[in-house]
Amino acid sequence: MVDPLRKAAPTALVFALCAATVALAGSVVSNLNIRETSGANTPATGSVSLYAKADGLLYSKDDAGTETQVSGGGGSAGFTIGLPPSAGVASVSSTTYPAFGTNATSGIPHLAFDGATQEAIQWHGVTLPASYDSAANVTVEITISSGTASQLTRWGLRVATVERAAISTAPGTLLATAVYRSGTTSGTAGTANTHAWTLSNADLDSAAAGDLLIIELARDAASAEDTSTVDVLVHSVRIFQ
């Protein structure tokens, strides 16, 4: 009789043994060793791959081939900016702000940025965690969709510390210079794309750990680099280190 474990690939064997341990012991595994790799192939439809890369961080890749960093690294806790439960605080740097809505089926919230008019929105009172390292860059990640043909959109992000922003008069005019990022939307209904870009401490208005921030996200629909003429939905905004 052939031992089935002899024919198993090393990686498959490791996960098979871990799964068996969990099933038999009925408890949580204390640690899981994942061999570092240069990346992962796009998984089959309906699946997500989890893997480690040479930088010591964990990543995931969905069935659309989109890679997302899922561990912060460097001991920094990171933080997440969630969509507000309403239209939020309109930015004075634009005349209009995106409409808040929810998906009729899932109830997941979104902000709908217009395809012709530049719109912006602000989040106030976001606190940088104590573990924030001002010497290291942070990553901004947004998830967007449109449900029409895949088109290019252009986004700007500006940050100011509360101490240096005249909130009562014109907060948008005192925010740091915007950092722009262009990203394509998915041409498939119900499918979202994630785009990320890097900010330095100077882009964060030279903020320090514990500072309160005003964060502004704008769609630069008037730019020639924004070729989409339809509303684009922003499902999530995340800043992490």
Question: Could you explain how this protein is built, in words?
Answer:
The chain is mainly beta and 241 residues long. It has 2 domains: 4-69, no CATH class; 79-240, Galactose-binding domain-like (Jelly Rolls, Sandwich), CATH 2.60.120.260. The chain has 1 helix and 15 strands; from the N terminus they run αβββββββββββββββ. It has one helix at 10-25, and strands spanning 36-37, 49-53, 58-61, 67-69, 79-81, 89-90, 99-102, 109-113, 119-127, 138-145, 152-161, 179-184, 193-199, 212-219, 232-240. Strands 5, 7, 8, 10, 13 and 15 form a 6-stranded antiparallel beta sheet that branches. Strands 6-9-14-11-12 form a 5-stranded antiparallel beta sheet, with no helix packed on it. Mean pLDDT is 73; it is low at 1-26, 73-77 and 166-174.
Produce a short descriptive summary.
The chain is mainly beta and 241 residues long. The protein has one helix spanning 10-25; strands at residues 36-37, 49-53, 58-61, 67-69, 79-81, 89-90, 99-102, 109-113, 119-127, 138-145, 152-161, 179-184, 193-199, 212-219, 232-240. The longest helix is centred in the first third of the chain and has 16 residues, at 10-25.
Topology at a glance:
Blueprint: H1 10-25, E1 36-37, E2 49-53, E3 58-61, E4 67-69, E5 79-81, E6 89-90, E7 99-102, E8 109-113, E9 119-127, E10 138-145, E11 152-161, E12 179-184, E13 193-199, E14 212-219, E15 232-240
Parallel strand pairs: 1-2
Antiparallel strand pairs: 2-3, 3-4, 5-15, 6-9, 7-8, 8-15, 9-14, 10-13, 10-15, 11-12, 11-14
